[in-house]
């Protein structure tokens, strides 16, 4: 029998790993009580992109943009997290468009012809929301002089801080973690603008997961939100609640893409 897989790799700053491990242990214990064999540990051996495509995925978290745009993903939404971070209403999050403190720019329009950093083209917070913010300002499908793809929000922060890029869009939940656990990383940055909101990254399971297991996962998630023994772990990852939701909730993510394309700006550049 194939071994089930679990991941919480989307928000897993080094200072959050122990909290994520505790939350997963709480979920796994509750699944075991329902007769569902759950992995004892989270999978940190592979990229989250590889884990999303694993047919044995029992529990994970996915970016909303590939969820609605990648036909090869076969996932079912279990729940939608609510995070206690600035500028993020219930079940929503934003990106902060950041630059250096000493940079003279005061508005997005001041960054025409400058250098941008993105974590990945398939990222909602790093690319999709950023593109939507820039689209009304672009001319002939172009705005920046260059765009570098860094591989992560953390590296995008470094790129702006050291001057390899002038501006980047950083997930607000990631930015909150950096402010709390690694303040020196963002000490030289300031928030230039805030993007439109979109739904937070959903908790998911493989589409092939049985309905009975999905129901047990949802019960387990409700339990860990209510468990006072896990209050500290929830606080470390900013998690305050998990609410129901389906893929239709993520239509606004696709709407941001559609609007940018209609404006003649299909790619951040």
How would you summarize what this structure contains?
By secondary structure, this protein is of the alpha/beta class.
Could you characterize what this model shows?
With 269 residues, the chain is an alpha/beta fold. 36% of the residues lie in helices and 20% in strands. It has helices at residues 17-33, 48-52, 64-69, 124-134, 153-161, 172-181, 183-186, 211-226, 231-236, 251-262; strands at residues 5-6, 57-61, 75-83, 92-93, 95-100, 115-118, 146-149, 167-171, 189-194, 198-199, 203-206, 239-243. A five-stranded mixed β-sheet has the order 1-2-11-3-12. Helix 1 (17-33) packs across helix 8 (211-226) and helix 4 (124-134) packs across helix 10. It is globular. It starts with a strand and ends in a 7-residue tail after the last helix.
Order the strands across the largest sheet as they lie in space.
1-2-11-3-12
- N-to-C CA distance: 46 Å
Strand content: 15-25%
Can you give the mean pLDDT? 96
Structural class: alpha/beta
Total strand count, please? 12
Percent of residues in helices comes to 25-40%
Which spans of ≥5 residues are poorly predicted at pLDDT below 50? none
Number of helices: 10
Overall, the morphology is globular
User: Main beta sheet: strand number and arrangement?
Assistant: 5 strands, mixed
User: How many whole angstroms does the radius of gyration measure?
Assistant: 19 Å
Q: Give the ordered list of helices and strands.
A: EHHEHEEEEHEHEHHEEEHHEH
């Amino acid at each position: 029998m194939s071994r089930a897989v679990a991941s919480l790799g989307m928000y897993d700053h080094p200072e959050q790993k122990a909290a994520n491990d505790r939350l997963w242990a709480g979920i796994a214990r509750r699944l075991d009580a329902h007769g569902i064999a759950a992995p004892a540990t989270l999978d940190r051996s592979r990229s989250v992109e590889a884990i999303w495509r694993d047919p044995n995925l029992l529990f994970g978290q996915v970016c909303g943009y590939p969820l609605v745009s990648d036909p090869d993903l076969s996932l079912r939404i279990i729940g939608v997290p609510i995070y206690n971070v600035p500028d993020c209403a219930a079940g929503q999050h934003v990106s902060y468009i950041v630059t250096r403190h000493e940079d003279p720019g005061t508005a997005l329009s001041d960054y025409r012809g400058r250098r941008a950093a993105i974590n990945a083209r398939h990222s909602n917070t790093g690319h999709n929301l950023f593109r939507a913010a820039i689209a009304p300002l672009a001319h002939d499908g172009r705005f920046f002089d260059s765009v570098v793809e860094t591989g992560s929000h953390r590296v995008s922060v470094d790129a702006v801080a050291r001057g390899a890029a002038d501006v980047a869009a950083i997930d607000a939940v990631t930015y909150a973690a950096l402010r709390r656990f690694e303040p020196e990383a963002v000490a030289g940055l300031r928030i230039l603008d805030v993007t439109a909101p979109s739904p937070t990254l959903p908790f998911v399971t493989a589409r092939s997961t049985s309905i009975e297991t999905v129901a047990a996962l949802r019960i387990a998630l409700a339990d860990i939100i209510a468990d006072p023994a896990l209050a500290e772990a929830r606080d470390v990852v900013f998690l305050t609640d998990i609410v129901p939701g389906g893929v239709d909730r993520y239509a606004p993510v696709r709407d941001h893409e559609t609007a940018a394309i209609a404006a003649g700006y299909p790619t951040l550049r």
